């Protein structure tokens, strides 16, 4: 799993216990997962369909730098399934895991549409395919 997105836990992200508010973290995850799905499917029209059990493993506090890791685990005809882990950037201690997130690819009519993808596309491969490198 690649960890690309990093967030700095600031005072406005905290709950009354002084730890990272779960709602803030879930917003970050949903946004990052949507961006990942958009890049993988090559379409800006994707929607969150399903998020499985969210397992909060440990707390994060003000000043922590956390990183979000997302990877595709399955490609359906109109969907993509992802898995996610959030961890402390410095200690590598897991903060949260989400086993399954499903995003649906939409056509211009707003209905599910086939995307034709079957495997993860990496940035280096996208540039080579498009003739933008080498």
UniProtKB/TrEMBL annotation:
Residues 1-109 form the HotDog ACOT-type domain. The keyword Hydrolase applies. One of its GO terms (molecular function) is long-chain fatty acyl-CoA hydrolase activity. One of its GO terms (cellular component) is cytosol. GO terms for biological process: acyl-CoA metabolic process; fatty acid catabolic process. InterPro entries: Cytosol_ACT, HOTDOG_ACOT, HotDog_dom_sf, Thioestr_dom. Pfam families: 4HBT (PF03061). Gene3D superfamilies: Hotdog Thioesterase. CDD domains: BFIT_BACH. Keywords: Hydrolase. Belongs to the acyl coenzyme A hydrolase family. This is Acyl-CoA thioesterase.
């Amino acid at each position: 799993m690649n960890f690309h997105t990093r967030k700095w836990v600031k005072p406005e992200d905290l709950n009354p216990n002084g730890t990272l508010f779960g709602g803030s973290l879930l917003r970050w995850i949903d946004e990052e997962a949507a961006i990942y799905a958009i890049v993988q499917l090559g379409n800006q029209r994707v929607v969150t369909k399903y998020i499985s059990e969210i397992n909060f493993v440990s707390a994060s506090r003000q000043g922590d730098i956390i990183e979000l890791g997302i990877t595709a685990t399955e490609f359906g005809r109109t969907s993509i399934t992802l898995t996610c882990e959030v961890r402390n950037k410095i200690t590598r201690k897991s903060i949260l895991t989400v086993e399954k997130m499903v995003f649906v690819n939409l056509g211009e009519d707003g209905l599910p549409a086939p995307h034709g993808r079957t495997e993860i596309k990496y940035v280096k491969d996208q540039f080579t395919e498009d003739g933008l490198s080498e």
